[in-house]
Amino acid sequence: MKIGFIGLGKMGMNMVDRLLSDGHEIVAYARTAETVKKAESKGATGASSLNDLISKLHCPRIIWIMVPAGTATEETIQNCSALMNKGDVLIDGGNSNFRDTIRRSGELKKKNISFLDVGTSGGIWGLEKGYCMMIGGERPVFDTVDPVLKSLAPENGYAHVGPTGAGHFVKMVHNGIEYALLQGYAEGFELLKSKKEFALDLQKIASLWNHGSVVRSWLLELAESAFEKDPGLASIKGYVEDSGEGRWTVAEAIEESVPAPVITLSLMERFRSRQDESFSAKVIAALRNEFGGHAVKKTDG
């Protein structure tokens, strides 16, 4: 299929690469010409502006947006929709708030532009492993872009989960669970490290637990990798950002009167990490860097 792709960051560029490798035609646009040239070197057709991108796609157009949630997504959708025609499809693959997604879909529907919200997980490993995708929107639109989704995902790694907003809602809860999992591993490894008389090898234990243990996971594999690179995580400052989806998950739990104490406390721990140094925060920062390429703050030493 031929699609337009807007946003060529860490995930966006890898998604373009994966699509190209599976035979799709990509018209790529980003804010910087240098980034567009990088996509061209991989085989994409570069676009110098949104107008240029639109002109290089045939109707009905399919455009995938992979830019930061909030203002960037809002402006991109508005600018694209002003140039698109009836029957065109817009896809938001970022971490938008599901309530914004529902509103945007309604606005686009008035222009007869179809909309899909795709909660996308996979981080910097998606190019190799594929992206897990949770898709919301009308089923016929999902079916139309199925070849693109199939190319991006691993086997059984994508699904239509419900109407508009459902994809981003499911991804929001996914990220809330991620907060809790990271916090659980972080606290456990801090306790292991604190038992000085045993001089425990954290890399060895992470590897061990991944062989038959009930707590084995990809995150533990990444923990093993992080400890191999820096056994004491001495080079990483224990400062942990939050993407916003943890806050939304907690807010929605309150709205729905659903008890979510572990996710809530995990979010609070991220706030605490910005005040005091802690090894558990170092673990979370290291794991986020491992699976998503998220920046870490380095220590002075």
How many alpha or pi helices? 14
Order of helices and strands: EHEHEHEHEHEHEHHEHHHHHH
Order of strands in the sheet with most strands: 3-2-1-4-5-6-7-8
Gross morphology? globular
**How far is it from the N-terminal to the C-terminal residue, by CA?**
50 Å
Question: What fraction of residues sit in β-strands?
Answer: 5-15%
Please report the total strand number as a whole number.
8
What structural category do the secondary elements indicate?
alpha/beta
> Approximately how much helix is present in the residues?
40-55%
Largest sheet: 8 strands, mixed
Radius of gyration: 21 Å
Integer average pLDDT: 95
> Which segments are poorly predicted (pLDDT under 50) over 5 or more consecutive residues?
none
Please give the structural blueprint:
Blueprint: E1 2-6, H1 10-21, E2 25-29, H2 33-42, E3 45-46, H3 50-55, E4 62-65, H4 71-81, E5 89-92, H5 98-109, E6 114-121, H6 126-129, E7 132-136, H7 139-144, H8 146-152, E8 158-162, H9 166-194, H10 202-209, H11 218-229, H12 245-255, H13 261-273, H14 279-292
Parallel strand pairs: 1-2, 1-4, 2-3, 4-5, 5-6, 7-8
Antiparallel strand pairs: 6-7
Helix pairs in contact: 9-12, 9-13, 9-14, 10-11, 11-14
